[in-house]
C-alpha cells in the first residue's frame, strides 16, 4: 500500500522504456553509428531506448553545448528512420549548471554525490526520524533471506549521511519541473561517484525520502561494490556484485509498492561501458525478475574513433600516435580529474617512441578492449580514454580526419556497441 496517498507514477507524462542505453559521444560525430547498433538489437527482438549523454565537463573541454547533443540525436534519428523513443541526457547536473540543459534535454541525471554527508536542517531531520520510526525493529524485504534490524541510531546515521542529498535532488527536480512542466522529463538520481556503496536498507530509506519529496524517480544510480574504472572491465568480487545487484532489484520493487514510486523505476549502472564480466550477471537477474535497466556509457565511443583512425593506416594512424604521445606527456594533468575512476600502471605504458614504430594492427589491438588478447593493454586504453582533451585541442586536424575516415570509424563504433556490449548484456 502506498504510504504517501498519492502514487507518484500518476504524475508521469513521459515514461522511459524498460531497457535503455546511454550513448556518450564526445565529439558528436558517431550518432548514426551508435544508433545503428541499437537497430541491430531491435532486429533481434530487443527494444533498447537510446539516451545521448554528455557531461558538463565534457562540453567544457570539447567546446560544445547541450543544443549540439540534441541536434546530433535528432539528425541521427531522422537519418536512420528510428521510430522509437529516444532521449537527451543532461548528464551529472546540479543547480549550478542545469539551466543551459533544460531546453534541450528530456532526461536529467541529478548528481547528489557532493551533498552526501552534508547536514540536513534540524526540523527536516526530526521529521524524517519521526516518519520512519514505524520501521524500527525487524524489516523484511520480500525475496531477501536476511532481515534488517532498524534502530533509532541507524535511522539517524542514514539521515546524517543522505537526507540533505535527497532534499537537494528534489530542489533540482522542482527547478527543472517549473520550466519544463511536471512529468515531462525523465528524472534520474545519481549517487555512484562516492567512496562507499549504499546498502539495501540505506537505499530503502533514500527512496522513501525521495518519495516524501514527491520526486517521481524513474532511474537511480547507486554505488556498487568494486571499481567501475573508465573504459575497462569491472574490478571486484563478481559474486558480491551479483548479491548486491539482486538485493537492489528486490529492494526497489518493495520500495515502489511501499512508497508509491513509479512502477518503472529501474537501476542505472554508471561507467557502464566495457564492464563485460558483470554483463551476464545483470542480464540474468533482470530477466529473472522481469526488470528494466539503464546502462550509461561515455568514452568508449571516443576510443573507437582512435581505433578507427589507427585501422585506417597512413595519416590517420599517425594522428592516433600523435594523440597518444601528447597524452603520455601530459598524463598527470589529464588523469587528475578522473583519479577515482581510473587505475593506470605507469610502468605498463609504452613509450611514445616505441608506439611510433607500431603497425596499424598493433596500435588498434593494444587499444581495443578484447579481454585475453595478447596485445591488449588496459593502462594504454585508460590513458587515451582520459586524453580526449588532446584531440579537442587539435581542432580541425582531428575533426577533418573523423569526417575523412567516417566509414571505418563508424564500423568500429557500431561493432563495439553491438558485438561487445549489447550481445553480452542481453545474451543476443
Write up what this structure looks like.
This protein is α/β, with parallel strands linked by helices and 428 residues long. It has two domains: 8-17 and 85-123 and 160-298, Aldolase class I (TIM Barrel, Alpha-Beta Barrel); 301-413, no CATH class. It has helices at residues 31-43, 56-62, 66-80, 99-102, 122-132, 152-180, 200-212, 238-259, 279-289, 300-312, 314-329, 331-335, 352-356, 360-367, 378-386, 388-394, 396-404, 406-426, and strands at residues 19-24, 49-55, 87-93, 107-111, 137-139, 148-150, 186-190, 219-221, 266-269, 293-296. It has an eight-stranded parallel barrel, surrounded by five helices. Strands 5-6 form a two-stranded antiparallel sheet. Strand 1, helix 1 (31-43) and strand 2 (49-55) form a beta-alpha-beta unit. Helix 1 runs parallel beside helix 18 (406-426) and helix 6 (152-180) packs across helix 7. It starts with 18 loop residues before the first strand and ends with a helix.
Amino acid at each position: 500500500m502506498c504510504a504517501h496517498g498519492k502514487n507518484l507514477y500518476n504524475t508521469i507524462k513521459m515514461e522511459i522504456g524498460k531497457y535503455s542505453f546511454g550513448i556518450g559521444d564526445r565529439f558528436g560525430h558517431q550518432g548514426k553509428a551508435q544508433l545503428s547498433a541499437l537497430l541491430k538489437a531491435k532486429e533481434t527482438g530487443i527494444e533498447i531506448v537510446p539516451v545521448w549523454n554528455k557531461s558538463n565537463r565534457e562540453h567544457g573541454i570539447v567546446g560544445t553545448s547541450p543544443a549540439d547533443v540534441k541536434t546530433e540525436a535528432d539528425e541521427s534519428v531522422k537519418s536512420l528512420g528510428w521510430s522509437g523513443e529516444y532521449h537527451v541526457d543532461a548528464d551529472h547536473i546540479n543547480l549550478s549548471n542545469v539551466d543551459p540543459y533544460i531546453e534541450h534535454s528530456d532526461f536529467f541525471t541529478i548528481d547528489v554525490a557532493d551533498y552526501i554527508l552534508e547536514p540536513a536542517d534540524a526540523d527536516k531531520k526530526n521529521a524524517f526520524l519521526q516518519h520512519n520510526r514505524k520501521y524500527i525493529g525487524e524489516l523484511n524485504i520480500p525475496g531477501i533471506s536476511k532481515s534488517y534490524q532498524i534502530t533509532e541510531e541507524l535511522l539517524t546515521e542514514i539521515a546524517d549521511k543522505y537526507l540533505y542529498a535527497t532534499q537537494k535532488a528534489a530542489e533540482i527536480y522542482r527547478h527543472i519541473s517549473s520550466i519544463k512542466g511536471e512529468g515531462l522529463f525523465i528524472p534520474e538520481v545519481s549517487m555512484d561517484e562516492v567512496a562507499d556503496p549504499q546498502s539495501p536498507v540505506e537505499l530503502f530509506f533514500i527512496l522513501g525520502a525521495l518519495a516524501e519529496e514527491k520526486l517521481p524517480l524513474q532511474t537511480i544510480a547507486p554505488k556498487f561494490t568494486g571499481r567501475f574504472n573508465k573504459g575497462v572491465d569491472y574490478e571486484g568480487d563478481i559474486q558480491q556484485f551479483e548479491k548486491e545487484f539482486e538485493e537492489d532489484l528486490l529492494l526497489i520493487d518493495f520500495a515502489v509498492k511501499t512508497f508509491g514510486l513509479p512502477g518503472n523505476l529501474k537501476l542505472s549502472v554508471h561507467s557502464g561501458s566495457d564492464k563485460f564480466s558483470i554483463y551476464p550477471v545483470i542480464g540474468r537477474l533482470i530477466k529473472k525478475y522481469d526488470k528494466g535497466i539503464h546502462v550509461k556509457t561515455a568514452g568508449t565511443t571516443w576510443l573507437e574513433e582512435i581505433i578507427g583512425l589507427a585501422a585506417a593506416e597512413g595519416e590517420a594512424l599517425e594522428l592516433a600516435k600523435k594523440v597518444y604521445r601528447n597524452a603520455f606527456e601530459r598524463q598527470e594533468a589529464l588523469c587528475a580529474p578522473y583519479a577515482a575512476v581510473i587505475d593506470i600502471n605507469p610502468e605498463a605504458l609504452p613509450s611514445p617512441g616505441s608506439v611510433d614504430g607500431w603497425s596499424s594492427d598493433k596500435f588498434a589491438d593494444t587499444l581495443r578492449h578484447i579481454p585475453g588478447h595478447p596485445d591488449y593493454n588496459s593502462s594504454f586504453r585508460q590513458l587515451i580514454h582520459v586524453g580526449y582533451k588532446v584531440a579537442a585541442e587539435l581542432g580541425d586536424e582531428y575533426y577533418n580526419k573523423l569526417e575523412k575516415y567516417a566509414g571505418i570509424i563508424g564500423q568500429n563504433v557500431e561493432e563495439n556497441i553491438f558485438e561487445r556490449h549489447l550481445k553480452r548484456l542481453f545474451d543476443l
